[in-house]
């Protein structure tokens, strides 16, 4: 047995599911089901989604967060997810990384948002070592003062989920679907979307980011790749998802 194998025997196990281009609605269905029905630790990586989609937090209000007229005119899907956090528009240039953990398997992390965010900062410090000026500012991952990663969480009695939308690339025009939020981070300083965010592709290759992320997680968990049927969660009629696609009528009423 190698030294690495011996060390890994003492680490909690984590299943790794990797996807490419899975629709974000299917991904969120899967994550919600894993959080609430599985007892395993999970890392889900989805390299891009299939089409531009707006994703809002659990308590988000379209009238406050979206340019509803443009969203309706261009028929952009709007999802209300099962976790908190802000609003983002995702597309094939977005990389999603989700960590679903049993609270007892992550020593030193309390089941509270701030504690989980601090732990995630240390994890991604390994990924972005010597690349840009990586920081956690309020609840965002930034290079300097420009955001490239938005986070959302949900915490249950024994488990928590922390998922991130990483802006490896994006279409500038899609940002026009989002209003300037009334409750913005202080460091944003009323900057427009294009002044506030940056593209990760200007800092590192896409595949390098994903590989480094897996390596950083492997320092804390014994990772096991698994094949996941992402469609099974969508078609499971026994599990009631709180994540949902907003109806056209709901947007029109907003």
Please provide a written account of the structure.
InterPro entries: aa-tRNA-synth_II/BPL/LPL, BPL_LPL_catalytic, Lipoate-ligase_2_inactive. This is BPL/LPL catalytic domain-containing protein. Residues 39-225 form the BPL/LPL catalytic domain. Helix content is 29%, strand content 26%. The protein has 254 residues and is α+β, with helices and mostly antiparallel strands. It has a single domain (3-235), classed as Bira Bifunctional Protein, Domain 2 (BirA Bifunctional Protein, domain 2), CATH 3.30.930.10. An eight-stranded mixed sheet has the order 7-8-9-10-6-2-1-11, with helices on both faces. Strands 5-3-4-12 form a four-stranded mixed sheet, with no helix packed on it. Helix 5 (113-127) packs across helix 7. The protein is globular. The mean pLDDT is 93.
Give the overall form. globular
* Residues in β-strands, percent: 25-35%
Order of helices and strands: HEHEEHHEEEHEEEEHHEHEH
At the first level of CATH, what is the class? Answer: Alpha Beta
Strand order of the largest sheet: 7-8-9-10-6-2-1-11
Helix proportion: 25-40%
Named at the architecture level, the CATH assignment is: 2-Layer Sandwich
Overall mean pLDDT stands at 93
| Number of domain units | 1
Q: What is the CA-based Rg, rounded?
A: 18 Å
Instruction: Profile the largest sheet.
Output: 8 strands, mixed
Number of helices: 9
Segments where pLDDT lies below 50 for 5+ residues?
none
In terms of structural class, how would the helical and strand content be classed? alpha+beta
The first-to-last residue Cα distance is 61 Å
CATH superfamily heading: Bira Bifunctional Protein, Domain 2
Q: CATH topology, anyone? A: BirA Bifunctional Protein, domain 2
The total count of strands amounts to: 12
Protein name: BPL/LPL catalytic domain-containing protein
InterPro entries: aa-tRNA-synth_II/BPL/LPL (IPR045864), BPL_LPL_catalytic (IPR004143), Lipoate-ligase_2_inactive (IPR053264)
Domain BPL/LPL catalytic: 39-225
